[in-house]
Amino acid sequence: MLTRDLRQTIHSLHKAQKSNREIGRLLKVSKSTVSTILKQGVDIPSRPRKSLKSQETDIESVLRELFTRCHGNAVRIKEVLEEEYSVTIGYTTLKQYIRNAGLRSPLKRVGEYCFQPGDEMQHDTSPHWVFLGDKKVKVQCASLVFGYSRKLFMQYYPCFTRFEAKTFFKAGIEFMGGSCRRCVIDNTSVILSGGCGSNAVISPEMITFSRMYGFEFMAHRINHADRKGKCERPFYYIETNFLAGRTFKDWEDLNRQAKEWCLVVNQKEKRILGMAPSTAFIQEKPYLVPLPEVLPPIYEHYQRLVDSQGYVNLETNRYSAPETLIGKTVDVYKYPETVRFFYKHREIAVHPRISGKRYEKSRLPGHHSKNHMKQTQQAAVKIEAELRGQCDLLDQYISALKKHVRGRGHRQLKRLLNLKREYPREAFFCAIKKAEHYGLYDLNRLEGLIIKAVAGDYFNLEEEVP
C-alpha cells in the first residue's frame, strides 16, 4: 500500500501537467496505479471489513457436528467442508470460527514452581534410539536437574532397574558435587514399592540409598508431569542436539560424550535465568548436602552354581570360572563395570561386565584347560605317522595336502587313512598318483577316482540264466 506522502506527490505532479506514464516512470509505479490514486484522492481509503457473523451462523451447526466427528482436528474439518459441503475457508479463519463457537475449552493460566538453592532436584527417564556402531539400539536416558540452577546431568543405560538407578544417582551427585534435600520423581516402580503421589511408598532399598546421600524421594501425583517440568523439557533438547550428528562406538563412548556434552550445555546462558546454569550453580553450591566422606560401592550379590562347562550365568550372559569349581556354588558380586567371583571368601575371578548384550561369553585365560586340543594334536601326529613311510608318492601327497588345509589337517588325514583301509591298495595308490599329477586335494574327488579304478572289479553279480 502506497503512503500518503507518495499519493500527495502523484497529485502534485498531475497538477503540474505531467502525464500518468511520466509520473509512473518517475515514482516507479505502474500507470494503472497512478490512475487509481488520482481517482481516490490523497487520503488512503478505508476498506470495510467483511462481517463473519452471518457466515458463522450458517455453518455453526455444521462445525459442531464436524468438530465431534473429526475429534477436534481443524485440518480435517477444513478438508471435510471442501469435500462434502463445497465450502472453502482458510485455516486461520476456520480456527476463529471454532473459537467463537466455544468448541475448544479456553486456555488456563499456568503457574511456575520456584525453588530456593539446594531445595529440590528432579529426575526422570526417557527411551531414545541410538546408533552404537552400526546397530540401532533402544536405550534409556536418565537425567538429573537441579531446580534452582537448572544444572543438567544425563547418562544412558540398556535398561533402568534399581541397580542402574543407584549407579546413576551416585554418578550424578558426584558430578554435581552434592545433592539437594528433595528429589522429585514420577510414580516409577524402580523407586516405589507401592502407591502413587502423596500416598507413594518408597522402596526400603532406595530409602537406605537416599539417606546415605542426604536426600529423600518425593513422587508427584499421576498425570502431573509439570511438577518436574525442569527435567522433562531437556529430553527433547537431548534428542535434537546431543544425538543429532554424533556417532558412538560403545556404551562407554556414549556416556563419555554425554558427560562432556553436559559440561558444555551447562555453560550456555538460559533466558529464564539470565545467566548460565554453571553460574547459578555457584550460588546454589553452598546450600547443597555435601558428599559423604566415604562413598559406598554400588553392587548386587548373587549365588551361582558353576555349570558343567565351567561358566556362571548372569543376566543371560556367561562368565568363566576355574574348572576345578565345576558343580560348586560361588558368590557373585555385580558392580557397574565389573563382575567379581568369590569362593570361601577368596576372590577367584574379575570379569569386565557385559552390558547391553545377550548370550555373550567372557572367558579369562587359565580358567579352562585345553586337553581336547592336545588330544586332537596327538591323534593327528599318530595318523600321519601311520600313513607315512609306505610310499614316497603318498608322502609327497600328504605334505601337499597339509598345505591346502587349515591347522594340522587332523580331519583330512583321518579320512585319507580310512580311504586307504577301505579300498584296495592298487586302486588307492593309482588314485593318489592321478591326484598328485593334477593337483587334486579334495578328498571327495579322490574317492571318486578310487571308485572309478575299482569299478567292475567288485560287486559283480553273475547274470541269472533264464
How are the elements arranged and paired?
Elements: H1 4-15, H2 20-27, H3 31-40, H4 53-69, H5 74-84, H6 91-100, E1 120-132, E2 135-146, E3 152-157, H7 162-176, E4 182-185, E5 192-194, E6 201-202, H8 204-213, E7 216-219, H9 229-242, H10 251-265, H11 277-284, E8 300-305, E9 311-314, E10 317-320, E11 329-334, E12 338-343, E13 346-352, E14 361-362, H12 371-387, H13 392-403, H14 410-422, H15 425-438, H16 443-454
Parallel strand pairs: 1-4, 4-7, 10-14
Antiparallel strand pairs: 1-2, 2-3, 5-6, 8-11, 9-10, 11-12, 12-13
CATH architecture of the largest domain: 2-Layer Sandwich
Q: State the end-to-end distance.
A: 120 Å
CATH class of the largest domain: Alpha Beta
CATH homologous superfamily descriptor of the largest domain: Ribonuclease H-like superfamily/Ribonuclease H
Question: What about the largest sheet?
Answer: 5 strands, mixed
Strand order of the largest sheet: 3-2-1-4-7
Strand content: 15-25%
The structural class is alpha+beta
Q: How many DSSP helices?
A: 16
Low-confidence stretches: 49-57
Principal-axis shape equals extended
The number of strands is 14
CATH T-level topology of the largest domain: Nucleotidyltransferase, domain 5
Q: Percent helix among the residues?
A: 40-55%
- The figure for the number of domains is 5
Strand and helix order: HHHHHHEEEHEEEHEHHHEEEEEEEHHHHH
The value of Rg in angstroms is 42 Å
Could you report the average pLDDT, rounded to the nearest whole number? 87
